[in-house]
Task: structure prediction
Amino acid sequence: MRLPALTIFAAFAALSAAAAAAPTPVTLDQAMAHPDWIGNPAEQAWWSWDGKQVYFKQKRTGSQLRDTFEAVQGGQPRRVADTELAKLDSPNVVYNRAHTRAVLVRNGDLFERDLKNGALVQITKGVKAEDPQFSSDERAVQFRVGHDWFSWDRASRVQGPVALPRAAKDPAALEPDALREMQLRLIATLKRAKDDRDAGRARAEEERRADPTRAPSPVYLGDKVTIEGSALSPDGRWLVVVTAAKGGDKGRVGKMPRYVTESGYEETDDERTRVGRNNPAPHALKLVDLASGKVQDIPFDNLPGVGTDPLAQLRAAAKLDPLKGNRPLRIADRADAVRWTADGKQAAVMLRAVDNKDRWIAAIDLSTARLKPMHRLTDEAWVNYDNTDFGWLPDNRTLWYLSEESGYSHLYTMDANGQARALTRGKWEAGDVQWNYEGTTAYMLCNRKNPGTYEVCAVNAKDGATVEVTGLEGVERFVLSPDNRKLLVHYSTSYVPTQLATVSVNGGAVAKLTDTRTADYRQREWIQPEYVAVPSSDGGDPVWSKLYRPAKMEAGKKYPIVMFVHGAGYLQNTTKRFPTYFREQMFHNLLVERGYIVLDMDYRASKGYGRDWRTAIYRQMGHPELTDYKDGVNWLVQNLQGDPQNVGIYGGSYGGFMTFMALMRAPETFKSGAALRPVTDWTSYNHEYTANILNTPDLDPQAYKISSPIEYAENLRGNLLIGHGMVDDNVFYQDSVRMAQRLIELRKDNWELASYPLERHAYTQPESWFDQYRRIYKLFERTLKQ
Result:
């Protein structure tokens, strides 16, 4: 098999780099040390009000405290004194239409900034304000505190409530009662008294509504619902409220024991519920006319496909009752799932089926309290929970949204006549959209060059012309400057954690603002990963991977192979960015120094490769991915002197799950492995993640059976290390304990369970990291070098 051209290029680049500087040896203790030694990355970052300065947060060395810094181009960042903090802006800013004013949230308080002269006015103090917006006439700032909405008048500086939704009975509304009705019919005195009270309340309400100095009355939604969210129209006329039924079954909650505690006694924490034990509670929508107090339910009946059960065949096969009526829906789980136009005349809402086979965007007809379907995205597997941005353009008529309907996440607009238009297209992903305030250009993250290279792209709203604005290769996120002329960019590289830079929205030279690496870390040379495209035996797209190997391969030598599996399933690790798995990357350097070759694959299910790649694991987790890893092993054997008799594999979380699947479903290929914080039985994992991929255990038991490693434990022949934090509240420690008991009962040999009493899912203590990777290293040394 011939190497792909990209592989040859990458290999040549790596050899050239190696000739310039040999990698600095790294010890296991150094690789697993607290990451402070690397240098803490730039965290939250934001523009000053005039766009002349950039500020950011950074963690202190040896502490969890954060400080605020001012970035200085070409110099060291300046720590902002505590006495200066009251003058600063924040990352959470909302602009008016002309970008002459901004509302910012800082420490839960609201401020308004005049962008012409910088004047700052405080609006709230100590009330934890959220969701600020300008009123449609821009004479006021509206915001939410809890479930209540308030308005601050810019001229008078008066603040007061505009909408007070209550999940309670209206105290003035009496439920039907035959005895009371009889008394009022027979006793005239009682009837006159009641009529007087009713007239008094009605008159008081008339006066309240006519008097703008008065606070509004509460809006009572009934005591059988809970309020899940709300959105106020900028003109102050309407309130859309998301509710759920009160008292739904939350499923059985288990107890997680903690043995090493400050008190000296064993303690327990409540666990999350398991998949299928707590289906998400359906949502309902209510429209409140704030002028009249009228509350109307918004039905979902006219959403296309809402009454069709895509799981009907599975339901029948499982001998479950057929679904009756419409499928249960939820308003999309995002803070801005209801989006108003700036003038308050239109609202759009994003809804999802609880089975997650459909996502709708619908407008709300304010005159009839009905939905007007605008866009439906349906998927026989599951609709992506990522790349779900949507909103209105400044013309108050055009809807924009991201959709995966082409097979990749792309940007679309829809005009007032319902005509949709794709602004971007191709085998790449668009995400994290920000529009300029004129609505003429959208900026987004894009990976047009190859799946792992991320830039900021600019897209023309008129013709869809798309260009890369940056040339950094590892852009993570970005923020438009207040005048929309520059971008503040977070970027990283394989061995450089997140840094800051600015660039013109027209492209050009990038001004790098920070380098937070320590002197020790900065002077080190590392083995640069080669980005390779491993051919797929299934005949589809190649599997993009990162290869770590010696700069010069020893002729005739067979190199033991280590395969790394990233976690989360839907995560991308083969990118030009600083990896989530930076410790593992340093460990891979150590392994190469000790004579191994390492391959880190973005197997099917990984992020960044489109819908088909993401959903390839539907109802068969661990199967397509295992094929990809076997293809990776074969590719290393055929092209890079890999030793097929000595193949190891390891990873955490989803990577731990895949390590089990490799050792237990392909024991002829994988000789040893380390399964860290692994899922062993998907019926024990959470609903939100698992039900997307495997449906629910009662509905699709076969999918769970073929996807759960514990079902294959009898096939274990190799060498296995299991490592798990005992207070893991993501993948429960119980998963590994149950697997251990299964292996005991099967009388399996050559396995061990290492437990970490104080660690949760993401380890935090260097001692735990060191102990775990010492065991992994010894496992590979003992079993792969024979």
